[in-house]
Amino acid sequence: MIATSGERKLIWDLPVRVFHWALVVLIPYSWYCVEVAEDMDRHMLTGYVILALVMFRLAWGIIGPRYARFASFVFSPARILAYLRAARDDRDEGRGAVYAGHNPLGSLSVFALLGVLSLQVSTGLFSSDEYSYFGPLAGLVSEDLSYEITTFHHLNFKVIAALAALHIVAVFYYLLGRKENLIVPMVTGYKRDGEGGMVPIAGSRLVVAALTMAACAAAVCFIVGIGE
Fold it and tell me: Residue 45's pLDDT is what?
């Protein structure tokens, strides 16, 4: 069981938190736009925003603070299996400073979601409904290929929905089963360091984050402009 007392330490920077909660809102909203409201304009606009966010997160995984960096949560298969065995046996070994950020199981979720989201926004650029709505890059491929890409785009969303559901289940498993609240730290950025071994980040690097996000937004505008 995870200790709930201890010093509060800043672990999650603001850009990571904004990215996380923006996706929580934008992914279901994007689905709503196309499946319920039948508003492809809003669906495509939402897709552009998600594309910029994914590009930002990929860059932030290289230049961001400690726990935002991919290098901080790349684990070997043996490490992941050891963590799963410890979780199965309800043991807490190795869960201190090493896993102040994403634990081995959480890292799989992050990489899987980033992977399928990258596929989703990329295929969306080449998709079309064959009638009135075309992705900005749909004209660069044949109609048949655009149709195949659109089919994949629809199927891939089911994968995204499944991974998101699994992520939610895992969060509540940790909350109810292991008494570890993963939600509050992703809101405030702070975690309780019950073992005294977590190394906090110095700050959120907001200027660097703003410049990076601006560059990603400009890149999306450039990509969208190619098809015009």
Answer: 98
> CA angle at residue 162 from 138 to 168, to 5 degrees?
125
CB 21 within 8 A of CB 53: no
- Give the CATH number, domain containing residue 19: 1.20.950.20
pTM value > 0.90: yes
Inside any domain, residue 138: yes
Residue 102, helix vs strand vs coil: coil
Regions in the chain scoring below 50 on pLDDT: 1-3, 94-97
Residues listed for the chain = 228
> Distances from the Cα of 40 to the Cαs of 5, 31, 163, 201, in angstroms?
48, 10, 24, 41
How far apart are alpha carbons 10 and 188 in whole angstroms? Answer: 8
Q: Is residue 1 part of a domain?
A: no
> Which residues form the domain of 194?
7-226
What's the domain count of the chain? 1
Query: Are 125 and 135 in contact, with CB atoms under 8 Å apart?
Result: yes
